[in-house]
Write a structure and sequence with these properties.
Blueprint (H helix, E strand, L loop, with lengths): L1 H39 L5 E2 L11 E5 L3 E5 L18 E10 L13 E2 L2 H9 L14 E4 L6 H7 L7 E6 L19 E10 L1
Parallel strand pairs: 1-2
Antiparallel strand pairs: 2-3, 3-7, 4-5, 4-6, 4-8, 7-8
Length: about 200
């Protein structure tokens, strides 16, 4: 009788340990993302909850507890007149997507996927041909109620046409705990995108 109880106890401990490890990973990624945005990012950002009325300080918002978004042109006086991304919108974006290493992304950081025409010409100058591997350098059309990454959906909601956006997300909002193509498992992801059109 004691033996089955011991087996069940060990199995329960392993299950709980797995959950705890997953939460530790998520918690650690969240902490590192906040630290990066507030200390390393240029410009340094503050959470939107700390923005005082009338302030022009750059800030980030958090969606779903795991998607951190910075809209570079949020204080543009004409922004409120542009179409806003909603639950049923179709959005065209030009983007660069990176495995995020909690450090600044520079021009020499290679994205795992992009449709930015500036990259196409830069890569051609270097003799690289990423377009032949399935990349297209046309705007990506995203249906908000279609099959897209949850983190990208959360990052797009509330954006407006013409916005320049940086979105950082923990692995559970991106590709999860399995490897996907060249993306290692449990990788935080950064999407840099411009909202070209909203329908």
């Amino acid at each position: 009788m004691k033996r089955p109880f011991a087996i069940l106890f060990c199995a329960a401990a392993l299950l709980l340990g797995g959950c705890s490890q997953e939460e530790d990973t998520l918690s650690g990624q969240r902490e590192k993302l906040v630290s990066y945005l507030e200390r390393t990012h240029s410009p340094s950002l503050i959470p939107d909850t700390s923005v005082e009325e009338g302030s022009q300080l750059p800030f980030y918002t958090v969606a779903g507890n795991s998607v951190y978004r910075y809209i570079q042109n949020v204080y543009d006086p004409d922004r409120a007149n542009r179409p806003e991304v909603g639950e049923n919108s179709t959005v065209a974006i030009t983007f660069r997507a990176y495995v995020f290493e909690f450090s600044n992304i520079t021009d020499s950081t290679f994205p795992f996927w992009s449709n930015d025409p500036l990259l196409e010409s830069a890569y051609q100058e270097l003799g690289l041909s990423v377009g032949e591997g399935g990349w297209t350098f046309e705007p990506l059309h995203v249906s908000m109620n279609g099959n897209i990454l949850n983190g990208l959906r959360l990052a797009l909601l509330g954006c407006r046409e013409g916005d320049d956006v940086e979105a950082y997300m923990t692995y559970n909002m991106a590709y999860g705990d399995s490897s996907f193509s060249t993306i290692p498992s449990e990788s935080p992801i950064a999407w840099f995108f411009t909202v070209d059109a909203v329908e």
